[in-house]
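Appendix B. Extra example for self-study. Work through it before the problem class; the solution is given directly after the inputs so you can check yourself.
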Amino acid sequence: MTTTKLKRFSTEIRLETSKMLLKRGFGHLGGAFSIVETLSVLYGEVMNIDPSHPAWDQRDRFVLSKGHAGPALYATLALKGYFPKEWLSTLNDNATHLPSHPDRVRTPGVDATTGSLGQGTSLAVGMAQSFKMDNKPNRVYCIVGDGELNEGQVWEAFQYAAHAKLTNLVFFIDENHKQLDGYTKDIMNPFDIRLKLEAFGFNAVRIPGNDEDLILKTLVEARNVEDKPTAIVLDTIKGQGVTYFEQLFDNHHIRFTGEGEAALKDAIAEFEKQLTEVDA
Amino acid sequence: MNIVKATAQNPKELRAVYTETLFGIMEKHPQVVAMDADLVGASGAGKLFKAFPNRCLDMGIAEANMYGAAAGMSLTGKVPFLHTFAPFATRRVFDQMYMSGVYQNSNVKVYGSDPGFWAIHNGGTHTSMEDLAMTRALPTMTVLAPSDATQFAWCLRKAAETYGSFYIRAGRKAFLDLYDPSSEFELGKGIIVEEGTDIVIFAIGEMVSESLKVKAELAKENLSVGIVDLFSVKPLDEELVRQVSKGKRLIVTAENHSKIGGIGSAVAEVLAEVGNTAPLVRIAVNDRFSEVGTADYLMATLKLNASSMIEAIKAKL
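Solution. Structure tokens for the complete assembly:
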């Protein structure tokens, strides 16, 4: 039951993200699509939130450290009712509430401003440390890109999270194997990310990043881990969920013209069809 | 604002003032936390860390994470005070100060210690002559350069009570006492420390005391020197700068900072908009690096001491 619901939510997030990007004509589709299932599980099932009260202090916190995936987060927040769905068509418009990278001052439901890579990890660490200090039950979730692991600050934050035993903190590493200039192994080889995080003192697991059921199960298990923060390395594909974009080499920031525009329109039609079928 | 001049000298080390004042702040405000980057021994905040073990965090030698974590804590309602040496509190974490800090309207208070020549035997590597230039350029950042212990303590208390990002630069050693502890200051308000009719010196930090020596020396030559303490570097008391500059033969600025982007630049910006003012002499570090040495040696070498100031002033009169 949960899985069906979450799969439907994932399709909705991809559909709304696609529509936003089609309207804008360009955007970070690759890295937005690779985190869709994770957003679906977090906002669809796991996080303690109240979309009608975005500033509720007992809420769990979410930090999208790889801020360029903002459109996927906006789609998720709109679908949860944080703000009117009509806002989605204003992505990157002049004076919009939805800038390319998440901005907590401008958008209801965004817990942290991100975009300068690496910084979200420390923001998440600070939030988790604060809750732990006060013995509060709030949990903190943070998605980090695999390319983002190039940033030194990420490793400072990881060291501290393990040192301070932030059991209320989960880092997802979206290992979609590519960064702007090409494959991560060619730009800055990450080697075995799970092993690195384990060596840093994390409860570190690696799972397929397109399996809502498994992501959910892993998060539930993480709650019982003592004395260690959790890191979940998600094995994903940049552009995940649409074959054309998965296979497109330069799929970090895409301009939707010609073939790309047609592929995005086809994807939208396909997502809409899938949703109709599920509902039937 | 209620300024009462100090009547006696009993200067305290500013690092002791930091610990003492923060102790009082933490007793009063349960949301205040203290963070340091493996410099608790240098800041002398050990007493604080012992008294509030759950609210004091040594974040290790990882300043970017310290700043970011502080910003994250502030988004959950905490009011973090950070300490590290001025170059690491600014230059090393400037992008964190920008995005995790002011851009997302977080609430982080920073004490950057030993700015400028106060790096003494740590030398040029540990010297920040550009921290004011950097922090002044950040929208919404409050930038303070206190001139004595009383003012430093007031800045810390004000930072605790005011939402927003603060950068407070001060040495760790004692500065001469200028104000009685009963003094009350105001953000964005300069203080006329001494009246004078020929020359006005707009000074910050330790350079306010140095300017008093200049005043005493020039009085012997019948030159009347006024001194204004512009500790609130941002917001700046532009009105006071305009007012006090009127009718002077010479306008002087004095700071333990680069000539580029500090209080001299800030005053010059105000005066250029007024037009037709007296000539301006900026006592500051002239676009060069510092080095190891004693404070006296460095003040002389960097041309910041009273005799260098007098020489520069006379050359323009």
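Self-check: Chain A has one domain: 2-279. If your reasoning did not lead you there, revisit section 3.
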